[in-house]
Write a structure and sequence with these properties.
Residues 11-24 have a biased composition (Low complexity). Residues 1-28 are annotated as: Disordered. Residues 1-10 have a biased composition (Pro residues). There is one protein chain. With 69 residues, this protein is mainly α. The protein is elongated, with a radius of gyration of 14 Å. The chain has helices at residues 24-36, 46-65.
Length: 69
């Protein structure tokens, strides 16, 4: 496991001021970085993980409901 912290969210990250959620691939990568950064003796960042899961669910839902051209 890596002991480095995940990078801060970039401009593509959604927040209260954000206009859209990041894509499912971007959010999945952020979840992987968060999990990889955890150590066995550290506290689990449950709030950050939950937010990433909500973003991922929204991104996959949006992708599933877009019409196919």
């Amino acid at each position: 496991m890596s002991i480095t912290s995940p990078p801060a969210p970039g401009p593509e990250a959604s927040g209260p001021e954000g206009s859209e959620a990041p894509g499912a691939d971007q959010t999945n990568a952020a979840i992987r970085r968060l999990v990889d950064a955890q150590t066995t003796d550290g506290a689990w960042p449950s709030e950050e993980y939950e937010l990433l899961l909500v973003e991922w669910a929204a991104a996959t839902h949006d992708a599933a409901t877009e019409p196919v051209s």
